[in-house]
Amino acid sequence: MENILEIKNLNLFFKGENEDYQALYDVNLSLEKGKIHTLVGESGCGKSMTAMSIIGLLPKKAFIKSGEILFNGENLLNYKPSEMRNLRGNKIALIPQDPMTSLNPLYTIGNQLVEAIQAHSKVTQRQALRKAREVMDLVKIPDSKNKLNFYPHEFSGGMKQRIIIAMALSCNAELIIADEPTTALDVTIQKQIMDLISEIKQEFDTTVLLISHDLALVSNYADTVNVMYSGHIVEQAERREFFQNMKHPYSIALLNSLPTTNPALKLKTITGAPPSIQEKISGCKFHPRCNLCEHGLCDIESPKLEEKTSEHFAACLRV
Hints:
It is a single chain. This protein has 319 residues and is an alpha/beta fold. It has helices at residues 47-55, 81-87, 109-120, 125-138, 144-147, 157-170, 187-204, 215-221, 239-244, 249-256, and strands at residues 3-15, 20-32, 36-40, 62-71, 74-75, 92-95, 175-179, 207-212, 224-229, 232-238, 306-309, 312-314. The strands form two sheets. The chain has an eight-stranded mixed beta sheet with strand order 6-7-8-3-9-10-12-11, with helices on both faces.
């Protein structure tokens, strides 16, 4: 088993006027080469901050206080800004939530693909153009030769997302971070995009970190599942084990809140909302929303991520 990326005890803070606020707490994550690893949770749980930490694109007020991010054995936190710029888009690529804002409306798709290729490869304009057509064909954009002359507004949302994926493929990225890549798309297009990502993983042995709030999507495509809540990893397991034997109350609540086609079943919601980083919560961060909370225990003691059964980890005092 070869891990392409390892995050070890990552602690991230935001600078405040009077004090610093912690957003990530001792995050540990191992990404095995050639698999789809998922980071799951509600908005504001720290998923995107974890991803931005990997590629060095944190907000101005955010800083990493301690930890390591090892990519192919090298700590990215020691990289200079120029080294990180060379790594981004080359070895590590990002598929963002909104493809509409990721493409420059003033330039053709061909110009943008060629620029991305030449930024990371010593190739001529003609070679870059040939490569651009190849990756457009790979992501199944029809009539690629003519479509290279199109502007972003001439493509649908699903096609724009395919172009972003083509950019990742054009530089032979070893790791693709897909941050809610299907959020703005309808269900049919979502499946097409996820099938495409899965095919790329199989064909090129690419590693994917998929960030999502959608457990239904995760159940179809993930190899491993990592559940995040309020800056903590609260559960980790291989996909089949996770869905057959969920441990953490938050994971169970997320699954129960999925829409159902059975009219006899009511949609279950999770009471409250994830806490902001300014909120001070003693004990388990999830205890104010948890049905299994035991007062005098869960509201006092902070649970650690521990192996509950073979290769299945959870941070819960009641499991």
